[in-house]
Amino acid sequence: MKPIVAISTPPGIGAIALIRLSGEGVFSIAQKVILAKKPLTAYRPRTVHYAKFIDPETKEEIDDGLFWTFRAPSSYTGEDMVELTCHGGRIVSKLVLEAFIKAGASLAEPGEFTKRAFLNGKLDLVRARGVLDIIEAKTRKGVHLARRKLDGLVSKKLERIEDRLLEILKNIEASINFAEDVDEIEIHQIKRELEEVLEEMDRFIEDGKAGRAYLFGAKVAIIGRPNVGKSTLFNALLGKERAIVTEIPGTTRDVISEEIILDGLPVKLLDTAGLRETSDVVEKIGVEFAKKTAEEADLAILVVDATQPDFDDEEQFLKDFDQPMIIVVNKIDLTDNRLPEIPDFMKKFVVIGVSAKDGTGVAELRQLLADELHTIFNPETGIILSDIELSKALMLRIEIAEGLDRLNQGLPIDIVSDHLMRATAKLREMLGHGELSDEILNRIFADFCIGK
Question: pLDDT tens for residues 33-74?
């Protein structure tokens, strides 16, 4: 492939900048810029050396630094590669980059180095996406899950499902070819194996949803009647003033969001409008949006007022609410830190007393939130799936489920085979096995940064 070059470190001022080249003829191109004591091909790969970097046209010295080489296929991309460090800064690294372009290299597209690693068989498509997940991870746990993906854990799970589907397809093909010899026992065995694969696929999807929270964040909605202290609690959990707090009911009309980290889990905290009947058109929209936000959240915090233990409105709201929830009894500083009598309909939820105003119980609430979210999103079994990967996994599951359904209906076995063939094709597409168009590949790697 044509030689490419890019700066791999972020733009701005820093001690050093990393520049990498990959592709056919990179050693001769790099030789025009790197003023080394001998030809680059004479240096032992993966050893570090000092050199000055020059403009290939004017021979003017630009900078100096360290360089090292990789020989195909023992490199990140599977091609010949050269990497070097020069001084960091807004200008000097760009001048070195321009020098390599003058020498014959092309500027790399976003994600092109990892795309080449995939095309050259160094990574499958799932592991390649793991590279981006590591870059985008915001917490230690997110990095850990992304690292497991890059190391092949997710790919192995998919390959195991693929192997089981292919074995089932082999048995089905045998059943089709030797239909007169197939008995009910063999059909029952195929059903049982399909049920097991479907269960494995369900676990894969649930683990994927759990792992996504550690990369993209979990959503926690704070809901409740007006003036129960939702915005004060929102600010207390953030540790800063973000939402406007007043004594006027209906102050918060739109959803306000901020991100916090709770025990290694990114959490998008959502402060919503007060739940009440209102004639104000704008506030009414805010109330409906608050209900919708709560229903779509991973966990809800229902805030109630310790000084107003009439919970009829909350009972009405919770009647049709089935999301995980914590009930926070706020303003216990006004009741000598005592909780009111908790009605039966609330007892199925975790209840905690706090004073958002003076901070009593806020630290305990943070820990409770973390514990509840870790229960919902288990980091031990979680795997990270991108939006595209999750969508394909769901489509794959549909094909398996429909194949099993057709089998249970007693339809011809070749119809079942068609569904499983489509499922296998979708699975191979997830892994990047088989032919993928340039358009699909470009879309996948477009989210990557230049230089990776």
Answer: 999 999 999 999 999 999 999 999 999 999 999 999 999 999
Q: Where are the alpha helices (DSSP H) in 217-334?
A: 230-238, 281-296, 312-318
pLDDT tens-digit map of 258-277: 999 999 899 999 998 777 66
- The residues spanned by each domain of the chain are 4-124, 153-213+384-436, 217-376
**Quick one: what percent of the chain has pLDDT higher than 90?**
59
Task: Write the DSSP assignment of 80-127 as a string of letters.
Answer: -EEEEEEE-SSSHHHHHHHHHHHTTPEEPPTTHHHHHHHHTTSS-HHH
- Position 405 confidence tier, pLDDT thresholds 50, 70, 90: very high
For 106-140, b where at least 16 C-beta lie within 10 A, e where not — what string? eebebbbbbbbbbbbebbbbbbbbbbbbbebbbbe
Residue 281 in tokens:
């058109």
pTM here?
0.76
Of 33-37, 146-150, 196-200, 273-277, the poorest mean pLDDT is in 273-277
Edge-to-edge strands, sheet with 81-87: 34-35, 49-54, 61-70, 81-87, 16-22, 4-7, 106-107
Would you identify the CATH topology of the domain 153-213+384-436? Four Helix Bundle (Hemerythrin (Met), subunit A) (1.20.120)
Give the span between the Cα atoms of 367 and 375, in whole angstroms: 12
Question: Which one, of 103, 101, 91, 38, lies nearest residue 67 by Cα?
Answer: 38
| Residue whose token pair is 């007060």 | 274
Architecture of domain 4-124: 2-Layer Sandwich (3.30)
